[in-house]
Design a protein that fits this description.
The chain has 498 residues and is an alpha/beta fold. It is built from 15 helices and 24 strands. Strands 14-17-18-13-12-20-21 form a 7-stranded mixed β-sheet, sandwiched between helices. Strands 9-8-7-10-11-23 form a 6-stranded mixed β-sheet, with helices on both faces.
Amino acid sequence: MGAQTLEDWEKMRDDLTFRNQAFIDGKYTDAASGETFECVSPIDGRVLTQVAACDVEDVNRAVGAARKVFDAGSWSEESPAVRKKVLLKLAQLILGNADELALLETLDMGKPISLAKTVDMTGVANSFQWYGEAIDKIYDEIAPTDKSGLGLITREPLGVVGAVVPWNFPLLMAAWKIAPMLAAGNSVVLKPAEQSPLTAIRLAELAIEAGLPEGVLNVLPGFGETAGQAIGRHMDVDAISFTGSTEVGKYFLKYAGDSNMKVVSLECGGKSPNIVFGDAPNLDAAAQQAGMSIFFNSGQVCVASSRLLVQEDIKDEFLEKVKAVGQFMQPNNPLDPSTMMGSMVDKTQTERVLGYIEAGEKEGAKVSLGGKQVRQNSGGEYIEPTIFDNVKNDMKIAQEEIFGPVLSTLTFKDPEEAVKIANDSIYGLQACLWTNDLTKAHKIARKLRAGTVNINNTNGGGNVMPFGGYKQSGIGRDGSLHALEKYTQLKSTYIHLG
């Protein structure tokens, strides 16, 4: 059954041995410089371990190993059936080690252990299983030519692909990228966020156990300005996939332009509107999801519905229902299985979110719930669920991505005003709307400038749906078969038959 209680998880924590090195060419190794950095838990401020701080030389070693095995063809030229078998075994190994991986995730970035296990680790295993199952069911094409020729259109792996992933869902975001990368036959150099490297380092070992050839998956912990930039600028990296802030995403576009014009895909910031009409089918359900969407994972979610747009005549009633959700989801010890809301990822993020709360008050918005740092005597980083009322869409808290448990409430009169407010943002990752009028729902969905529109829910789709953004929320799509388009290239072969 695994760990079940707070005491079980604490004992397991105390018995843990942390993998803390880079993983290059199938082996754990120190950074070439010998440098390390502290891995600090935001739960209580304790230093978990010292982690290898990779830099340019480590990236060179990893890319070299990845290129060598790619050219050798032991993975890139392997049959889809064999790649499928390895990815399915890796999925099973993840489930078999779910307690350990969930605990590493919780210790590293402060999410509740019950969610780390049931949401994150289940999702990680599902990603590898889904792409493993998919890859031997994808066909190439024959072009419609006349009888004098035969036109073949085939998909080939890109080569060496870099993945730079964020700290909010460390292993899940890595799986979203490396599962289709590996399924397509690429070699991968993965850089986890410096705030949360532990699960990615452990995953590398499980991948070898599953049968992945040495050198196909390399994991380089380190900082964005060193290891991340080196991957982005490397002349022998064929593509880079990044999830994180819009600000950093723009750097990777520059790195590609300054180097070899590598393919760049980005999933960046969001400021998702959640539009609630008076004719919503169930206001209680809408309020429950509105609160969960912004307070889940302490608001550290790219698609968090951080702008609540409520029709004027139901605003007061609806906001009280959302406040009840916030009052229920108070931060607590993430190792307690009953905890619904954990910590912020680190002190820097705590200070950033508190700064936005202060800015909102100065601009004239009203704190309707929360607004304070809590559990300070724990040594950890916790902010209570916070709701602003009387927000105008030109305020800082309505325009900028806070990435914390802070909800901005706005009102609208009619569908036209709702759409105008919703689209008045540099972001376009997700939007949600609640209405019982199907015609209205379809019309509004067409007008919303967002990569995903959820109707009468705030989180739907899973692996079967493409995920990504409009505008400055990114380029390209994760999820679904469309993700494979980012990690393959088309080759046209024309045969003259005479």
